[in-house]
Amino acid sequence: MKMRFWGLFRHVALSAALIAGVLVGLPGERAYGELRIDISRGRVEPLPLAVINFAGAGEAARYGRDLAQVIAANLERSGLFRPINQAAFIQRELPVDVLPRFGDWRVINAQALVNGSVTVAPDGRLRVEFRLWDVYAEAQLEGQSVATVPGNWRRLAHVISDMIYQRLTGESGYFDTRLVYIAETGPATRRVKRLAIMDQDGANHKFLTDGSTLVLTPRFSPTTQEITYLAYYNRRPRVYIFNIDTGQQEVLGDFPGMTFAPRFSPDGNKVIMSLSRNGVTDIYTMDLRTRAVSRLTNSPSIDTSPTYAPDGRQIVFNSDRGGSQQLYVMSSDGDNVRRISFGRGRYATPVWSPRGDLIAFTKIVGGQFHIGVMKPDGSGERLLTSGFLVEAPTWAPNGRVLIYFKQIPGGQRGGGATRLFSIDLTGFNEREILTPVDASDPAWSPLIP
Amino acid sequence: MRTKLLSLLAAVALLGACSTDPQTAATTSGSGASSGASTAAVTSTATESGPAAGSQEDLAVNVGDRVFFGFDKFDLTADARTVLERQAFWMRKNGAVTVLIEGHCDERGTREYNIALGERRANAVRDYLLTLGIDANRIKTISYGKERPVDGGHTETAWKKNRRAVTRVN
Amino acid sequence: MKPAAGDPAARKAPKKPPPQTAAAPIAAPDRRFNPNAKLSVSELDAIRDQIADCWNIPAGAKGAEDLIVDIFVRMNPDGTVRAAEVTDKSRMRVDPFFRTAAESAIRALRNPRCSPLRLPLDKYDLWKTFTIGFNPRDMLG
After folding, report:
1. How far is A356 from chain C (nearest CA, A)?
2. Residue A106 C-alpha, separation from nearest chain C C-alpha, in angstroms
3. What was the pLDDT predicted at A320?
4. What integer pLDDT is reported at residue A427 of this predicted model?
5. Record: contact A364-B108, CB cut-off 8 A
6. Which of C2, C107, C139 is the mutation pick for testing A, counting most A CBs within 10 A?
7. What is the pLDDT of residues A6-35, one digit of tens each?
8. Under CATH, to which class is A2-19+46-169 assigned?
9. N or C: which end of chain A has fewer CB within 10 A?
10. Is the ipTM above a cut-off of 0.95?
């Protein structure tokens, strides 16, 4: 019920987005074609922006501060915005019914300004109104009113962050999302691995399994309510589905071998995975409603790490059928297989971008691991980051940020650290995602419905 | 005395498979009995109260419980075949024993590919034991990919030890 | 070394450079003369440098190679911007990436660092109105 309310809210919010007059009208004659100046350079740096504590009385003021803090932190982490220290603010309070003193914000170089007001309704619900301003144009870019139960205030901050991000970049945001990953503890030779989940900013962290069984490679369903993953219950490695709401786990099918490398199809109706048997690894799908199984590849090679394109019509996977591990694309029925990676080294863990334009991958060459992207036809390969071990990229729902894990080797006795990192598609803004313990195999959820 | 001789043989066989460094060989055969018996083969002198026949320790100490593979390889080396031939002999002698072959990889591959590669390695061992006349329903396989290294180090020495298939007595 | 924007040498650049033959006739065939020719290369460089320093490119925008934004500008005689308008207004309404890029371009012209623009005040007639094309392509490869 809670989820449904949010879905509705998002819809209303976006369709009500204001397109205020940023532009100054120009009456009178035109004189195109006179002097023309072309600017092909600019500053590629975070946009300076001010997020003022949302105004409110009593309890509402506390929510106002917390909301502003979460919003500023989200925008800062994106690498595209630089929230200005509140100590520099000249105008200290700005409820939504007051017009900003734009001069005060220009002086501290704020190009955009976010303010808001919070009220606590008699029924306890929080009502938040916020505004996004273009300081130089002295114009409102966005203005919304949203409400929720107090326990949900962080999601409210994430949804507002997404609206600000979208209005200022032209792309949808990714702050109202979660991460599922594998939490790691103990020495390398007796590593304990647990399924863990948290908000994209690290809040609301929770372990989902107790570590008594090895678990690996979790992925979200499109609704974000289920996770498919590999677990070694009873020393039988098989694909499971975990329901986040009920905590129930269910083995997926009864295959005559080891199943692993599971992902949901974009419509959520199927799970695609590998089945290994007698030294041969092929790709299969299982329909979650009918339980019907289809075999998509049939070669003596290792075919694994399959992922659907966002439209569900194609699948990318890695295979050593050509002698070394490379990336291949095929139709969703297994036909029309074609190799797309031809560079030096081995390619693995392909993941199709949610916007369809790129495939991210892990590449091993020259004794180093790399995270890179290429177009679905294999052209335009770009490596974004490298290291002793970097692996398993996962996309933000807007397709412009990746999270992956990095192992920083320890000394002779092993150990070291395994951590999650995010990086922008441009290869900039690499930063660690903080987790309570070591972390690997990240999977980024779609926007929460 | 006979026990000691066999132990040394096992150590030499392991040595050929993984390294020319005798210290490494000792460590490898020592950690071979990873189900609990951790006595290094070369130091085992317990002729009277040796490991119980048909136990994991018996296999590890007197036969050799593991074989090693090249990087990204799953074919059996001559040394690996020698070890497996001794394992087959031992399994015939201990006819009630069933085993689980664990396939493992070093950390220089991606997780999912390594799970498949480990399965290939375990399967290569199983297939060879079958050709040596061991009943198929006495052998099961599992792959741990890169999840269970015996050496947590990040050197070629460690990786050589980790690229292995271990025969585990049920 | 490019001349700095306020460099007197730039301001004293010759009013009438050698006549140009290629540029003008195609862009504005019905004009009697090419006003472009009257701002010196140094003067144009200075203004480009100044605006580039004011422009925060919207990083990573989708289809950046196609995001050329033309802004028509009306100037005050003191070098401040009186009005700035995106020429392709219909695209503003349908393409959020273009709108983002266009707004960033307008912000550049409103940036205090670009007010006033360092233009030769004695040539106001030449830059009373002009068009600026913002093209992030070279920056986003």
Report:
1. 12
2. 8
3. 96
4. 87
5. yes
6. C107
7. 333 333 333 333 333 333 334 444 444 478
8. alpha beta
9. N
10. no
Whether residue A365 is predicted with pLDDT greater than 70 in this model: the reply is yes
Asked: is B2-43+51-169 a CATH 3.30.1330.60 domain? The reply is: yes
pLDDT of the residue at B52: 92
Of C96, C108, C126, the CB nearest to A170: C96
Greater confidence, A306 or C65?
A306
Distances (CA, A) of A60 to A128, A150, A441, B147: 9, 10, 39, 49
By the 10 Å C-beta count (0-12 exposed, 13-18 middle, 19+ buried), C58 is classed as buried
Q: Report d(CA A342, CA A365) in Å as an integer.
A: 13
The domain spans of chain B are 2-43+51-169
- Which CATH topology does C35-140 take? 3.30.1150
Check residues B27 and A173 and name the one with the higher pLDDT. A173
Between these two residues, C39 and A108, which has the higher pLDDT value? A108
All partners of chain C with 3 or more CB pairs under 8 angstroms: A
A&B contacts, CB < 8 Å: 99
Mean pLDDT of A383-412: 92
In this predicted structure, the answer to whether residue B37 has a pLDDT above a threshold of 90 is no
According to CATH, the topology of domain A178-444 is Neuraminidase (2.120.10)
Q: Which residues pair with C73 in a beta bridge?
A: C84, C130
Alpha-carbon dihedral sign for residues A97, A99, A101, A106: positive
- Residue C17 sits at the vertex; the CA angle it makes with C12 and C18, to the nearest 5 degrees, is 160
Distance of alpha carbon A309 from alpha carbon A297, whole angstroms = 17
Q: Tally the C-alpha atoms within 13 A of residue B29's C-alpha that lie toward its C-beta.
A: 32
Average model confidence (pLDDT) across chain B: 81
DSSP state of A233: G
CB contacts of B123 in chain A (<8 Å) are 278-279
Quote the mean pLDDT of chain A. 91
What chains are in contact with A, requiring at least 3 Cβ pairs below 8 Å?
A: B, C
Q: Which residue of A has its CA nearest to B144?
A: A237
Q: How confident is the model at residue C29 (pLDDT cuts 50, 70, 90)?
A: very low
